[in-house]
Amino acid sequence: MTLRMCVHFVHIQQYSFHGPYQKTSLTRNPKSASQFNFSTFALNLVTMSDAQRDLEKEFSPSAWVKRFRTAEEVIEHHKKVVREGTQLARETFKCELDVAYGPGERSKVDIYGTDLPPNAPILVLVHGGYWQLEEYTKELGTYGVLPLVPAGCRVIAADYEMCPKVTLSELTENAFQCLSFCLNYAAKLGASSVSFLGHSAGAHLVVAQFEQERFERLPHKELIRDVYLLSGVFDLRELRHTEAANSKNLLAITDDNVTALSPALASFLHLGTESVNFTIVVTGNESQSYLKMSEDMRDALHGGTNLVRFYLLPNKDHFDIVEQLNDKEEYLTEILLEDLKN
Questions:
Q1: Cys-Cys with 328: which of 46, 139, 142, 147 at CB 3.0–4.6 Å?
Q2: What is the pLDDT of residues 176-186, one digit of tens each?
Q3: pTM for this model (two decimals)
């Protein structure tokens, strides 16, 4: 086993963060709709206190992007770039679409590179969308297929159920079903290894499976090689009080479950004997809250394992961190391709 000792820093800056945040009494209704409306959100900002507006911005990734003038432009560009990459991957490679791993309407995966040798390594992609934006599907979560499949890696793009149709606690178990399906699929094929890549809320769902109770239930754990956590959401104690992520408490987060739903607060001592490599990546154009969550997640994992890498990409943001993955010459893509060789 080659130790990837902590911690790799790429242009790391030191931040000290304690925001001017306070609890707000938002109306909670877990049956509320899960479609985000920019106009309504902007209107709500007008009536918020300064502290609440600051909190909303901390957990609104599009507010920190410098490539576009408005949040709407950021999101529309992101969807266009990723959707075009997905379409090209479907046209270029042999694939199997909408393979069910559970009974839910969205509990399906797309598998790319199905004609690769059975022992080809597998990378599983888990997209973001704050656990509740229904427009975010595996079609908008298929990153890196274009360089990875030619490099000999089978890629699985996963979808999952969305809140408030399920609670976030239930969604975490839905993600367990997904990872279990992928590991069983890999074992049946005879794949050499399985790695997981989660972005934003998807990074939360991925790393939550490595907490002790769920990790002990995962099948074929010996196949897991790398876990990539990109711009993840790992501590929900502040986020639960935002309109951006949890309007009317559609995630069903309570005082009783918020700690259990925050992987950065978990213990990972059980990973000390495992050979899973963790790579945490955050960008320079994100809020201090997002940076701090990634640093805290790094520290939590490193409390149990030395196999942790941490990268800060200074000229990227929350969205092009995954948009870039179809370009084999981008830094993060090079890391993925190099890991495949080792």
A1: 147
A2: 999 999 999 99
A3: 0.88
